């Protein structure tokens, strides 16, 4: 900033701060003295002498700087000394490290030799005890060898671990053969397996049970550690089956031999079309032996603290593996025989269900379902489900022996459940029961998609039947088809809240973030209060079914209204402005030309009340009432002129004849004929009241600054649905009111 700008800035600040005082000499003098004092104060503060604060700070900073310099010099000297010392002791450190490494190597070698000596010692001891036939000591010594193996799990000495593993396997095979022979001897004494029908009458002797438990304990003690067991080369299907403990393996072995004998090879019992034979046999063996295993083998396992082993579960799993291997070997040859393939699927599912429900076989255990969910098998399974379901749908809808739309006799909720609707829902339920136990959500979703496809197929078939009806729809199959659609809707709503389908909805939502279309309620005349529910897997299907059901009810309503319109020509053309009747409504009778209208309405209501489900009929008659009210109001009231007699006759026809037709369905049928009733009210008030009302309605039309009392006036006459304009229009239909000036249309 140059001097000119500085001067200008100073002048501006003086003007802003002192203003007019600058024109007064005394004031200027005072300002000068004040600024002079401030200048002296600032100069004093900026003085670097010890008397000023800035001077003291600068002096302290210099002192600190000198000290820091001294410390830096000292630290540099120390660093140099340390570096010299490190160089001097590096040789010492290297020598010590070499000595420590040798010492560590010697210690490891010593421990290595001790382990080898311990293994050799235990091996010699084990050999001596085997010769002495001391089974308890043999099991104990072998357990010590196993403990060494567990401790060496993370040890890097591969040769030592290999030596120990070979030693373990050597003695394991010897002891296993010895204990297995003893185990089989005791099992033979106990008459295991229990294939005799009278085995339950035999009580095992305490001596044999004691021997069995002792040997079972030895077998558990000589189980090889998992880290020393080489993984078996097994098929992917059997890889889910973990090995059984030795006592249970030996219990299953005789049953396995019997199974292979009877259900493999050229035996008559080995029939691919009779899978229930081997499934039933396995279930029978489980039933006959499970109590023995639980009662006598499980306590031995618990005694040794092996709480992760469940003898009952392992025994069942061992037998299930037999069924899995058998079904897996049979199914590839059955894929070209539809009936046998389907029969095998059903029997396998029944077998799995029996295991779950009767013997509490856990869902997380390998099961026969692993065979059914193989890629080729499940595709074939779903194809068969679709094929048989389609054939059954064809049969149920084209049956000549039983009317597919005949209502069931055990319908409790008056849903008019038809035979085909009940059969179709049973078909879907059967499919659900077959696939709901599948462990993988993806597989269950595939079957759900199949069910949704069948639901859509069934709806299309019903639609084709509806389109084939060209005659009187009221007396055709259309009402029963509407009942069928409505019943399926209700079932799908109930199913949507079941845990099985809620889980599928969750999995479907996880795999597909796009939400399906929500159900549309459509016109209120054809909506159902039960239409509103949370999103389910059936949301889109329900929307289509509801749309079809509403269309069917609309078709029925259209047909009835067409009949009404064709019968109403004479009634609408009555000379309402020239009727001469008494003013007492008690002496009136129904207008003759109205009889065909009321007759067809009564006839169709009666017919459809017998054929439609109660809730559907309620929707239907309410629709007819509302449409009839609109039709007569627009085509009779607004198109005709009424004298006193005509207005009274119309009121009689409506209140004494039309309303009673609907009174059996509602306590307040007048609520569905609001336009006709309110029109009758306006047409039947006295002439003076009508003129006064008309003048009032017209006078307040478009008025501002005045309270609009017209709605209140109309309510006093029982008119609540019409606007003032519409009320004037109806009053203008009276012959005693002459329209001789511009009125509000």
Helix-strand category = mainly alpha
- Given this structure, which CATH class of the domain at 381-559 is correct? Mainly Alpha
The residue fraction in helices comes out at 55-70%
Based on CA inertia axes, which overall geometry fits?
Answer: flat
Largest sheet: none
Average pLDDT level: 87
H/E element sequence: HHHHHHHHHHHHHHHHHHHHHHHHH
Structural write-up:
- With 745 residues, the protein is mainly alpha-helical.
- Among the domains are: 3-46, no CATH class; 56-184; 233-366; 381-559, Tetracycline Repressor, domain 2, CATH 1.10.357.
- Helices cover 69% and strands 0% of the residues.
- The chain has 25 helices and no strands.
- It has helices at 3-18, 25-46, 53-132, 135-151, 158-189, 206-221, 246-263, 275-303, 311-334, 338-359, 369-372, 375-397, 419-435, 441-467, 478-496, 499-511, 539-567, 569-572, 595-611, 614-637, 644-663, 674-684, 687-699, 710-716, 724-731.
- Helix 4 packs antiparallel against helix 5.
- It starts with a helix and ends in a 14-residue tail after the last helix.
- The relative contact order is 0.03.
